[in-house]
Structures are given as structure tokens and as C-alpha cells.
Amino acid sequence: MTQWMSWLRSNDKEILAILNDLAKKSVEVSEELVNLFEDIKNSNEYHVKIKKLEREADELTRSVFAELNKTFITPLDREDLQRIASKLDDVIDYSEGISGRIISYHIQSTPPYMPEIAKELTKQTKEVEFMISKLKNLKVSKDLITHCRNTSDIEHTIDDLYRNALGKLFETNDSINIIKLKDIYEAIEQASDRCVDVADVVEDIVLKYA
Questions:
Q1: Per-domain residue ranges for the chain?
Q2: pTM for this entry
Q3: What is the per-residue pLDDT across 16-25, written as a single tens digit (0 to 9) for each?
């Protein structure tokens, strides 16, 4: 029995450790987006880095689901762990999609407000990574609610920047450029929304376990 319980605890830590690695990847990807928008002439270099991180994140996401499928008892609700993995993967996928669009749309100059939005997204992913790191140590504390709220507050800031960016964009008469940049703005807003989705799951966990 002792050996069985030891295996369970080890497997608990494995699942949560993988989720934490996935959260760290979201931070790395968002930081590379900041670098890309600050040095857009070398956007291909950053896209290559982001694409590599996105593939590594896909492997981590598959690992989470594989561990969950073979684990009878999970450290937290199985559905919560699945949602965290899925939403974190979405954050990274949307971010990779942004850098991919910069390349495929041949964007040569930094879109208005995009560096600021990317920096706010990085703040969000860092909040998320902090929350997941606490879950990794099975420290479900009501203090995490503050970080959930911070993540939502940042999302509101990104929404404001997004609206300002669209306003600036529609002042131009270049319909093709409007379509391209609107697509990029919407993708980064979606990445931000998925961070809030993770925060919502963490808040649910806190309310259940803290």
C-alpha cells in the first residue's frame, strides 16, 4: 500500500510539473513576440524560435493528456487539468499564429500598439505561470485569487489597446492592410482571452480546494 501511494504522489507531481513547463513555454513565446515587434525587420528569426517553442509545447500538451489517461487518481479534478493544458496550448498556438502571419503577410513595419499589447500579454503569461507553479507544489491558496484578478485586469488593458489599434487602423484607406493587421490584432486578443480562461480554472480550483 505504501509503495502504491508513493507511486500516486509521484504521478501527481509529474502531471503538474508538465503543466508548469507548458506555462513556462507560454512565457517564452510571449517574450519572443515582444522581441519580434521591437525588431520586426528580423521577424523571421523570431518566428523560427516561436515555432520551435510551439512544437515543444505541443509535446508537453500531449504528455499531459497521456499522463491523465493512464492515471486513475489525479491531484486535482481531471477536467480542470485538461482545461488548463488545452487553454495554455491555445495561448501558444495563437501566439505562433501571430508570428506566422507577420511572415506570410509580409509585414515590414511594427503595427501600432502591438509592442504594448505584446508586453501586456507577457505580463499575463507570467501571472499564469506563477499560478501553475503553486499548483505544481500542491499549494492551493486563496492568495491565488489576486493573480486571477490581475490576469483579468491585464486582459481589460489589452482590450483597450486593441480598440485603440483598430481605431488607428481604420483611419487609413488601405483595405488590404486593414484586413491583414486586423487579423493579427484579433489573434493576440484571443491569446489574452485564453490566459483569462486559465485563470478562471485556477479560481475554480481555489474555491474547491483552498
A1: 2-209
A2: 0.91
A3: 999 999 999 9
